[in-house]
Write a structure and sequence with these properties.
The chain has twelve helices and 13 strands. The chain is an alpha/beta fold. The protein is globular, with a radius of gyration of 23 Å. It starts with a helix and ends in a 6-residue tail after the last helix. InterPro entries: AAA+_ATPase, ABC_transporter-like_ATP-bd, ABC_transporter-like_CS, ABC_transporter_ATP-binding, P-loop_NTPase.
Length: 312
């Protein structure tokens, strides 16, 4: 237990963040260990961004304990920020500078020498696969290239801890997978990652452990595999029916699965053996328009814990 505590780069105990009378973060406990990729999942308003801002030392906590890199953000904010890398949700690149200049100018903010910044910029351009765009202005880049440049810029100071807020929002699948590859490489090189994301497949791909937040509290914590095993079943059978037939179909499949969920366009059967459950549904005379047997995912866990309501 002593070893684990020493390896923790972020430790939060009963952490609270209030904005006036509104409590955005309501007493959460979090530990992020050195070298892991840790995720915050949750609907809008769950408290993810407020937590990330406290860890990034740009928003003071209201109550509770918080240590980042072994220091107190209230008294050691500048020292902590010098050892962090931050990738904001929205790219905030300097569009009037070239790709290379964005890296070099940012590096100078950390007091790094010009020679060091030039070397580091060349390394990061290669890492982000932007070497051939080095002398182009940011305006000429695609969305995926801008995102890669933003991540590269956050690495100028060789951070021990990298905070990524919705790193692939708005990107096409090819750009997302390329970014995942870059993040895998960072983690393999020893960088600790903290990620917020709305993409469940991204969380499954990137995160060793994660917490699901809802209403400012932690609803669940564990590895993606642990959470799926704890809150879902091995497989899910999706039965699609014509509009208005779902409720009657749900009655007819009663007892076939550990849990049955009725949606406007389909019925979901949560089961350990999907094909066998589907066969038994057919034996009861059900003839859905289409069927699908799939493995349970983190999205099933997320929706069970936080609900399917739309949160603005």
């Amino acid at each position: 237990m002593q070893e684990m505590a020493e390896a923790a780069l972020v430790e939060a105990k009963a952490l609270v963040k209030r904005f006036g009378d509104f409590e955005a973060v309501r007493g959460i406990d979090v530990e992020v260990r050195q070298g892991e990729a840790f995720g915050f999942l949750g609907p809008n308003g769950a408290g993810k961004s407020s937590t990330m801002r406290m860890i990034a030392c740009v928003s003071p906590r209201s109550e509770g304990g918080l240590r980042v890199l072994g220091m107190d953000p209230d008294t050691d904010g500048p020292k902590i920020r010098a050892r962090l890398g931050v990738v904001p949700q929205e790219d905030n690149l300097d569009v009037e500078l070239t790709v290379r200049q964005n890296l070099q100018v940012y590096g100078r903010y950390f007091g790094l020498s010009r020679a060091h910044v030039r070397r580091r910029a060349a390394e990061l351009l290669e890492f982000a696969q932007l070497t051939d765009r080095a002398e182009k202005t940011v305006d000429s880049l695609s969305g995926g290239m801008k995102r890669r440049l933003t991540i590269a810029r956050s690495l100028v100071n060789d951070p021990e801890l990298l905070l990524l807020d919705e790193p692939t929002t708005g990107l096409d699948p090819q750009a997302r997978h390329l970014l995942w590859d870059r993040l895998f490489r960072l983690k393999a090189a020893g960088t600790t990652l903290i990620v917020t994301t709305h993409y469940m497949d991204e969380a499954e791909q990137l995160c060793d452990r994660l917490v699901v937040m809802d209403g400012g509290r932690i609803a669940a914590e564990g590895s993606p595999a642990e959470l799926i095993a704890r809150y879902s079943t091995r497989e899910v059978v999706e039965l699609r029916f014509a509009p208005g037939e779902q409720e009657q179909a749900a009655e007819r499949v009663a007892g076939l699965a550990e849990r049955v969920e009725v949606l406007p366009d389909r019925v979901l059967l949560y089961t350990m053996a999907g094909e066998a459950t589907l066969e038994r549904a057919h034996e009861r005379g059900l003839r859905p328009r289409s069927t699908l047997v799939r493995r349970s995912s983190l999205e099933d866990v997320f929706l069970r814990l936080t609900g399917r309501r739309l949160v603005d």
